[in-house]
Amino acid sequence: MLDQFVREWGYLAVAVGAFAEGETVLLAAGYAARAGWLDLWRVVLVAVVAASAGDQFFFLLGRLYGPALLRRLPRLRAQVERVAVLLRRRPGGAVVAVRFLYGLRIAGPILIGAAQVPPSRFIVFNLLGALLWAPLVAGLGWGFGHAWEHVSQRLPGFEAGLLALLVLVLLGSWALRRAVAALLRRRRARRAGPG
pTM of this prediction? Predict the structure, then answer.
């Protein structure tokens, strides 16, 4: 049942995931390819096309509405200097690099567009980045699937134990994020002082 669902909707999920952030979906698709539910090269092709289109969309959004977006979105504004440093050093490399830098997958193309990088330069380096990123991430998922297969055949109960560990890690991560966010809110409220 799960394999049929993945076969029917897997490539669409890869396209939607790669258009936005994509790593988690692409890792899962690489794993599904190892399980025989999807074709690895089709996964990579869909991811390259969707990731390039997504970044192109966000680039154009930044190019057309960059200053307005920076005024309205403080989180985006906080990344300006990080991207500006990359653009000063190597403009083409910055376009490739933002695909691999945490927190810049969507913000990066918007900020690069707002910095008025020429569209022709962005298109070329964006495609190069997607051609590097998609097989790397899907390949990691495929490799994880291979390792999982190998280990789970040798250790009885491994899958259940790993699933329990994964659930604990996800719950712990969620709780930690909430605790840190609450702590940061309290610090900001103290700094702001009485209103």
Answer: 0.71
